[in-house]
Amino acid sequence: MNAALLSLFALLAAIILSMVSRLNVGLVALGLAWLIGVFVAGMTNEAVMAGFPVSLLLTIAGVTLLFACAEENGTLKVLAAQATRLARGRRWALPILFFLITAILSMIGPGSISSVALIIPLAMAIGERARLPWLLIALMVTNGANAGNLSPFSSVGVIANSRMAAVGLGGHEWRVFLANLLAHALVATAAFLIFGGLRLTGEAETPSMIERPRMERPHWLTISIIGLWIIGVVFFKISLGLSAFVAATLLILLRASNEVEAIRLVPWNVVLMVTGVATLIALMEKTGGLELFTTLLARLSAPWSVNGVMALITGVISTYSSTSGVVLPAFLPTIPSLLQQIGGGDPLALALSINVGSALVDVSPLSTLGAMCIAAVKNQEDSRRLFHQLFIWGLSMTIVGAIICQLFAGWFAHALS
């Protein structure tokens, strides 16, 4: 069995094992990546280790440490009380609020990854106090972030539009944005209804029903430093993870947070799980697993079905790969030749299918957005359960995205103004 096929089986085995045992899937993934890379693919140890996602590690660790400081000193507790006041005690309004806030933030420039990293820790803290399902919170935040992710001002929007322009599909920036926004709003609405949004009729805890923590010096310092951090990330494009370490260090130096307790609150087991799986995925890309899988699925395409098939293909790949870093740059340039080979099709509709199909699955825990959501859940059992739920939802979105694109991509391409 060659390394490409074996790497695909290894990923499936790691996921299944994580579902039926208490073993951290990150440990399994790291071990399998080394075994296949060195003893099957003939790679060096250094080449296998090069697939370890240092950037993702720094981002998750930095952001979770910063918000661990905010949790340790009680700032999140204070803000959670204030946020429930914004919803005026209406639990059903909180998930909608999470979607809108994250969508707007993603839309104005930082993109989905930064937006989720900034919002999900606070959303999880608020959701816990309001007794909201973890899965509903994660889906509303991630779909909100993705809804605004292809605006002409966001980094991912720039990638998509520039790749489209290179193959003669320029000038459709707002059409791309609106198609993506509508698709994610539709999916978020479905998630809200499926997971009990309308049944959240009870009141969320309000400051009159719980203890009302006073705003003190550590809280104001934390809010100020996090606010400056957000401004730096959004407007000055500073490093999300590294700047979070600086912000956390400032809080500790100013004695606004306890270093030992904050580090203890970082969910290191979740960090291991996410980075371990990412290492195995990197090996799969190097051994040709992605190319093998794509080639097999692409043979099913025909002019009448290409929109749905390509949404399915890119969705499956994006489940365990980078949408902006791999899927969009790799697939958008293939549009002219692909349509020529299969004998027809609508190039703009196909481009929208690739954009939407690859984005809808980004709630998967194998993607950065899903990983952020899992990292924001401190309890190990809850994070493991959320991992499984997001994995199932992400896989289901490959089918949902394919259906949406097959039915509506042509309308998206020509009816939107």
Radius of gyration: 21 Å
Low-confidence stretches: 206-211
How many β-strand runs? 0
Mean pLDDT rating:
85
The shape, in one word, is: globular
Report the order of strands and helices. HHHHHHHHHHHHHHHHHHHHH
State the end-to-end CA separation.
51 Å
Main pleated-sheet profile:
none
Word description of this protein:
The chain is mostly helical and 417 residues long. Among the domains are: 1-50 and 273-287; 54-271, no CATH class. The chain is 75% helix and 0% strand. It has helices spanning 3-20, 25-39, 45-49, 54-72, 75-86, 93-107, 111-130, 134-147, 155-166, 173-194, 217-236, 240-253, 259-265, 268-287, 289-298, 306-319, 323-331, 335-342, 347-360, 368-375, 380-415. Helix 10 (173-194) packs parallel to helix 19 and helix 15 packs antiparallel against helix 16. The radius of gyration is 21 Å and the shape is globular. The N and C termini lie far apart (51 Å).
Give me the secondary-structure topology.
Elements: H1 3-20, H2 25-39, H3 45-49, H4 54-72, H5 75-86, H6 93-107, H7 111-130, H8 134-147, H9 155-166, H10 173-194, H11 217-236, H12 240-253, H13 259-265, H14 268-287, H15 289-298, H16 306-319, H17 323-331, H18 335-342, H19 347-360, H20 368-375, H21 380-415
Helix pairs in contact: 1-2, 1-14, 2-14, 4-7, 4-12, 4-13, 5-7, 6-7, 6-8, 7-8, 7-20, 8-10, 8-21, 10-19, 10-21, 11-12, 15-16, 16-19, 16-21, 17-19, 19-21, 20-21
